[in-house]
Amino acid sequence: MTITVYVPRDTTALALGADEVAALIEQAANGRGLDIKLIRNGSRGLSWLEPMVEVATAGGRMAYGPVEPGDVADLVDAGLFEGGLDHPLARGLTDEIPYLKHQQRLTFSRIGLTDPLSIDDYRAHRGFAGLEKALRMTSQGIVDEVKASGLRGRGGAAFPTAIKWQTVHDEPQGQKTIVCNADEGDSGTFADRLVMECDPYMLIEGMTIAGLAVGATQGYIYLRSEYPLAHRIFNDALGRAYRAGYLGNDILGSGKAFDLEVRLGAGAYICGEETSLLESLEGRRGLVRAKPPLPAIEGLFGRPTVVNNVLSLAAVPFILDQGGQAYADYGMGRSRGTLALQLAGNVKRGGLVELAFGVTLRELMEDFGGGTLSGRPLKAVQVGGPLGAYLPESQWDNPIDYEGFAAFGGVVGHGGVVLFDDSVDMGEQARFAMEFCGVESCGKCTPCRIGAVRGVEVIDRIRAGDAAEANLALLADLCETMVDGSLCAMGGMTPFPVQSVMKHFPNDLTPRQAQPAGGKPC
Amino acid sequence: MSHASPQTAGAWTPAQIQEVVDTHKSMPGAMLPTLHAIQERFGYVPEAAIPIIAETLRHTRAEVHGIISFYHHFRTQPPGRHVVQVCRAEACQAVGSRQLEAHVKTALGVDYHQTSLDREFTLEPVYCLGNCACGPSVRVNDEVHGRMTAAKFDRLVERLTTMVLEVE
């Protein structure tokens, strides 16, 4: 009897030795004369267990992890191929692992279950069901379905997806384009990468549906060059989708056309900003454009363009397949559906956690994350990438939703949640926010270009005890100027982490010697 | 695109550059794909490519230079045999990347944007490799390595330099 064994092939699994683990498992099976079928699946998103090996049994898939190459021989002796439980790395049935079981996976329902490149696998898990439905609908009908779902842009800005689509849909006929923003530059985020490495057809399907909805026949995926594996896997999937008739001039015999191409970015964080991304796609420096005109009216090459994040487009196949209402049934307030949260940094159990809006940070960090990796007390958490505020413990009980977070100056952003233990120097983190902005600013507007550089200098002076009081006032003023005067979110939000440190961790910003009693006002 | 011998980094002829540019010139927004293709093939974007790209894609030389210098990914000097990128972003900072960064610089004897004297390693900063749950992360050429420590890094360097000796 053939035994099916799964060893993931996403970046994280490979970064921790999955290829070697797979080779050793194959060797061990051969050595024992066992017939195994080794599937290189995607990750289930349980990064803390990677490489997570699974073995198919009559009762379901059994999980083992994190498996290092040196563990394989031991695991095999302990009955890996029979789904044995007598090993410290045995985790029991994958589906029963609480971390996974307690999630609400709508978008990520398939990751890790399938071979990412197998169209048969994808179809067996409701893949392309949304597209088939969309092909039978009117374009307005598709837009309406997305409207009913309440889906908002998952890149960070949370703009209602259907309104963008409606605007492009209502533009006169002519070349329209779907652009997928896969420039996932926020530290602490990797959900876009998981989509492209572990369930690439979902993104192809979502973009094709978007094309049908607005009358676009061309799509581009702008992928960051830091993701070489996603690039390889996704391009492979594109070729297969073309050959199977899911892309091209006559999608599934419908007579409708949609072409897709991946374009690589080149290491510029700012190109995650949609207008900068369009400039880059057109072949220029990624300088931010002033809005209006909106990209929906004058976007790529001056034509109406939908620019959506990977996760927004990846949510679309579910919405079309199950209906907008099924998606809207999840969530709270005006934040409908689920959010792909990514637990990262100093966390014991990091990984992808897809949940309906409304979960609190504390539940996420403690129940799922299990606290810090170091075992030391948590001190701060940065939500929403490098432009997101550092949140102190007093803010961990807020439920995660767009409006609720905005109310206290938090940013949900792309769903990255980065934990820091009490060894972190928050003054250093504030300085880094400015330093990063200095490195990555596109340079078009003064508050961002100059402000970031001055910001580093002022923070250095404060930390050196050089007229700390006056320089703190100057820093507060500089932050305000950047927030109010920058052209885009890069300069406009870089102060958020800085201001949060000034407000919640003032002692870290002031040099210990010069620190007055009673802390600092900000 | 056929070569009798494998292309070594740094070796190029204007005709070869022209050939790469011509392959991409009809794409909409051809600039980035062209620069990527040049760097992919020659290891960097040589100064001499600028007039060829400018001419073929109808830009000024200043524009082409401006585009190359805008994007961190493109380099204008031949890199060492291995390009090492250390993640400097927050998620990796939270698990000790600042100390790792210092160790890497000492171990390789170079700072960021420099190449070791033996031309084995070029060191670059990178802001996120998408391995944020299992950092600190380091990328060597196209491979990402997670949960990096100083000791693991030393073993990695050892393996990379030994590998090269075996090849030669």
Describe this structure in words.
The complex is a heterodimer of chains A (522) and B (168). Chain A is an alpha/beta fold and 522 residues long. Chain A has 22 helices and 16 strands. In chain A, a hairpin with a 6-residue loop joins strand 14 (378-383) and strand 15. In chain A, helix 6 (129-135) runs parallel beside helix 10 (200-214). Chain A starts with a strand and ends in a 13-residue tail after the last helix. Chain B has 7 helices and 5 strands, in the order ααααβααββββα. In chain B, helix 1 runs antiparallel to helix 2, helix 1 packs parallel to helix 3 and helix 3 packs across helix 4 (61-70). Chain B is elongated. Classes of the chains: A alpha/beta (522), B alpha+beta (168). Chains A and B meet through helix 1, helix 11, strand 12, strand 16 and helix 17 of A and helix 2, helix 4, helix 5 and strand 5 of B.
Largest sheet of chain B: 5 strands, mixed
- Residue share in helices of chain A? 40-55%
User: How does the overall form of chain B come out from the CA principal axes?
Assistant: elongated
Largest sheet of chain A: 5 strands, mixed
Strands of the widest sheet of chain A, in order across it, are: 2-1-3-4-5
Strand order of the largest sheet of chain B: 2-3-1-4-5
Q: How big a fraction of the residues of chain B is strand?
A: 5-15%
Distance between the termini of chain B: 25 Å
Point out poorly predicted stretches of chain B: 1-7
- Total DSSP helices of chain B: 7
| Proportion of residues in helical segments of chain B | 40-55%
